[in-house]
Amino acid sequence: METTLNIFEFTNYRSYLQAYYDDTKKKNLSWSYEAWSRKLGLQNNSSIIKILQGHREAGPDITYKLVDYFKFKNDERAYFEDLIRLSKAKKDPRLAVALMQKMQKQHSKSNVKFLDDREFSAISYWWFYAIRQMARLKEFKNDSQWIAKKLNFRVKPKEIKKAIQILLDLGLLRNDKKNNKLHISKDRINTSDDIASEALKRFHEGMLENAKKAIRSIKVKERQISGCTLAIAQEDISKARKFIQQFEEEFIKLFDSKNADTVYQLNTQFFPLIKQKYKGE
After folding, report:
1. CB burial class (10 A; 0-12, 13-18, 19+) of residue 14?
2. Burial environment of residue 219 by CB neighbours within 10 A (0 to 12, 13 to 18, 19 or more)
3. Is 181 helix (H, G, I), strand (E, B) or coil?
4. Closest to 210 measured CA to CA, from 277, 267, 281, 269
5. DSSP label of 172
6. Can you tell me whether residue 144 is helix, strand or coil?
7. CA atoms within 13 A on the CB side of 158
8. pLDDT tens series, the chain, 281 aa
9. Which of 93, 218, 246, 259 is 20 to 30 A from residue 113's alpha carbon, by CA?
10. CA atoms of 102 and 252, how far apart (whole Å)
11. 126, 207 in Cβ contact below 8 A?
12. Considering the entire predicted model, what is its pTM?
């Protein structure tokens, strides 16, 4: 199927599939998941919907059908299949990093960047940030079992133990061996634009899942989850984003405390609820 989308501009295969569906729907209002499934030779639309919603990964059969459908050239096919492998490597940072390194070398046109597996883990897993901030608390114990019980969201003690070691290796925590006490260092986790976007995406996905669970599991008086829906001029979007960033910086300055006795997460979501129409369209 002919498409103007460039697969090398994507670092997530689901985003590519969704973009293709949206573009096709814009050109053909009768286009649907059912129609696409028939074109792919699938029995029903459940597989493609589950893939797009993140409830399942593309298996070998549907991967072959998608590659054939888009008529990818050899380098495009290899890159698309690598994106699928990367998505499946969610719980294996070393494999994810190895894949990104391979993709960057083999696909010079792609936007994929990579770190080493320790940096990738430190950025992509939400509990690394939580543990680092917990080390500031007076009651904090350098004990993975204790930390696991303290966290509101489930993390296995072995994962916490691994996280502590990585944070120590990266100099993001330091260990006072005299009393087995961990201290936060002045170094910061680098999440600048030259860092792999895949790690940041995984971090935000994890924190959004926690926020979703908090709606049901955390008492109202202990949380603030609210939102507003507004109509906005596209020319003001960059100004709005900058305002939110400034707010976050001021929020930290105002409430980050040397006498902290708990750890909170502030998430700010600002995203379009409708498809954007750009000038010239």
Report:
1. middle
2. exposed
3. strand
4. 267
5. S
6. helix
7. 0
8. 567 788 887 878 988 898 899 888 888 889 999 999 999 999 899 999 999 988 899 999 999 999 999 999 999 999 999 999 988 887 787 788 788 777 877 777 776 655 566 777 777 889 999 999 999 998 999 999 999 999 999 999 999 999 999 899 888 898 887 788 898 886 566 555 434 466 777 788 889 999 999 999 999 999 999 889 999 998 899 999 999 999 999 999 999 988 899 999 999 888 887 776 655 55
9. 246
10. 38
11. yes
12. 0.61
Q: Among 175, 79, 164, 150, which residue's Cα sits nearest to residue 121? A: 164
d(CA 251, CA 194): 26
Distance CA 84, CA 51 (A): 11
Place of tokens 């286009």: 31
Tokens 């010239």 belong to residue: 280
Token pair listed for 66: 């998608």
Pairing outcome for strands 173-176 and 181-184: antiparallel
The CATH number assigned to the domain with range 7-112 reads 1.10.260
- CB–CB of 106/85 below 8 Å? no
């495009």: which residue's tokens? Answer: 76
* Best CA proximity match to 5, nearest among 78, 57, 105, 76: 76
What is the rounded distance in angstroms from the CA atom of residue 133 to the CA atom of residue 138? 11
The DSSP line for 37-59 is HHHHT-SSSHHHHHHHTTSS---
CA distance linking residue 154 with residue 136, whole number of Å: 21
